[in-house]
Amino acid sequence: MSSDALLAAAPIVAVLVLMVGLGWSAVHAGLVAAVGTLVIALTTFDFGGGDDPFGPAAGVVGVVAEAAWVTLTVIAIIGPALAVYELQQRTSATAVLQEGLSRLTPDPRVAALLIAWFFSLFLEGAAGFGTPIALAAPFLVAAGFRPIEAVSAALVGHAVGVSFGAVGTPVLAQVAASDFTGAELARATVPYHTILGWILTAVVVVLIGRALPTAGPPWRWGGLAAVTFFVPYFLIGRFVGPELPTLGGALIGAMVFIAVVVLARRRSPAALASAQPGAASADIGANGADDAPSDTSARALLVAGAPYLAIVTLVLLTRLVGPVKDLLFGVEVSWEIFDDFTGSVRPLYHPGLLLPIAFAIGALAQRASAHDVRMAIATTNRRLIPVVLALLAMVTIARAMSQSGMTDELAETAAGVGSAWPLLSPAVGALGTFVTGSATASNILFTDFQIATAEATSQPVLPLLGAQGFGAAVGNIICPHNIVAAAATVGLSGKEGLVLRRTLPVALAYVALGGGLALLAT
């Protein structure tokens, strides 16, 4: 490996060592690594040293401006999602929902699967952009999970859906950069997760077993959750296209899963609990069923779930109704400075617009007092301060690496393995997401590179683009950007390294197996 490649890898190594090895917070690790990244970019990669009269200053200002913009768009999701959670706690709506889940199944592990697996995947397929983690993690905490297990389960649980998240947005980035159609790319990508996705289901099952240890991991129900999701997921990806594999798989899978749960309980009221002694009596949360009203009605459940139902309704309306989607998607706000630094957002299509509406609907439906609303917002704002700093630092690292060519240097070094390139192809996709925080951005960054490398090494292109889309999804599990956001929703700010220690081995193993599949496919 060249000296330039070693220096290009230094920011990633620094983040991993400081957060995983030394247990530093994302704020402290990010600030140190961000400064180091800018120094390397300016001194080794001639960043900002072109014809621009502002020179290096323009590079630094441009990168920080891009980082601030990305941070703002992420906080627009985290903030209202966290406010929804705080309000749900204050109005006791969480306790009512817990009681409702306990009536559906006496086994809290099954309820946890519905949240960590199907709920996360549905939100990823419909909205993406961190929405599933921001909403599922606090819900799992309320259901009895320790914060670390809750964040880890949400990160792992949504990952198989990221390749087709936000109604296929990551694939659309590949369509724009290649000569392949969305349907062709979907067919190339979906086998990776279908064959290997059971590993992530198993991890979620293990995390549920740790969080609710009285009964142990719910292996049978986890197997059912995997089958009911992956069968429609694969069929839609194989025969329909990239827009609906995750969304359709989650909706169809959840309906089948719930039907089986209800049928099993009707046949034997103790059926769900009998597989693991003590399951029915396991605690389901700090404000669990024992504290919830025993006469929970359908109306009470609708009121308690109002913000989540509003999110689902708004997501389906804005993502699947063509005229509405076109109208909202057509509004874009963008900016550019120094020719090289840009930012854009579609404000009416961004999840950050939907979540405040859901918060307002929840407050009205639950007749929350003005005091509760103010306190929920105030608590949220206090918790967001360290999150903003951590995100700003981490995104600064990502943008500096991308703008200076450090990320390209790493990818080109990896391509030097020649015919064994497919083994590393998913890792490049994961690298792109690790440093950008977005599978879509990873696909934008590396699709051209994957095509060029495939052609240079005489490899078929399409399987490697599938591997790129697969790896980009896996990167979401370990991306500091996502971990910071998720940790903020459950009060773990400053302890993000503990989460990364849990998710890093999972991501590395999953990417490695994906590389093996890519090698077989080529």
Walk me through this protein's architecture:
- Helices cover 75% and strands 2% of the residues.
- The protein has a two-stranded antiparallel sheet with strand order 1-2.
- The chain contains 24 helices and two strands.
- α1 (3-21) packs across α24 (496-521) and α3 (56-90) runs antiparallel to α18 (370-404).
- The chain has helices at residues 3-21, 26-43, 56-90, 93-104, 108-126, 131-142, 147-159, 165-177, 182-196, 198-211, 219-239, 245-267, 271-274, 298-304, 306-320, 322-329, 351-365, 370-404, 406-414, 421-436, 439-456, 461-474, 480-489, 496-521, and strands spanning 333-337, 341-345.
- The radius of gyration is 22 Å and the shape is globular.
- β1 and β2 form a beta hairpin.
- It has 522 residues and is mainly alpha-helical.
- Mean pLDDT is 83; it is low at 274-295.
Task: Set down the secondary structure blueprint.
Blueprint: H1 3-21, H2 26-43, H3 56-90, H4 93-104, H5 108-126, H6 131-142, H7 147-159, H8 165-177, H9 182-196, H10 198-211, H11 219-239, H12 245-267, H13 271-274, H14 298-304, H15 306-320, H16 322-329, E1 333-337, E2 341-345, H17 351-365, H18 370-404, H19 406-414, H20 421-436, H21 439-456, H22 461-474, H23 480-489, H24 496-521
Antiparallel strand pairs: 1-2
Helix pairs in contact: 1-2, 1-19, 1-24, 2-18, 3-6, 3-17, 3-18, 3-23, 4-14, 5-6, 5-7, 5-8, 5-10, 5-11, 5-12, 6-7, 6-23, 7-10, 7-23, 7-24, 8-21, 9-11, 9-22, 10-11, 11-12, 15-16, 15-17, 18-23, 20-21, 20-22, 20-24, 21-22, 22-24
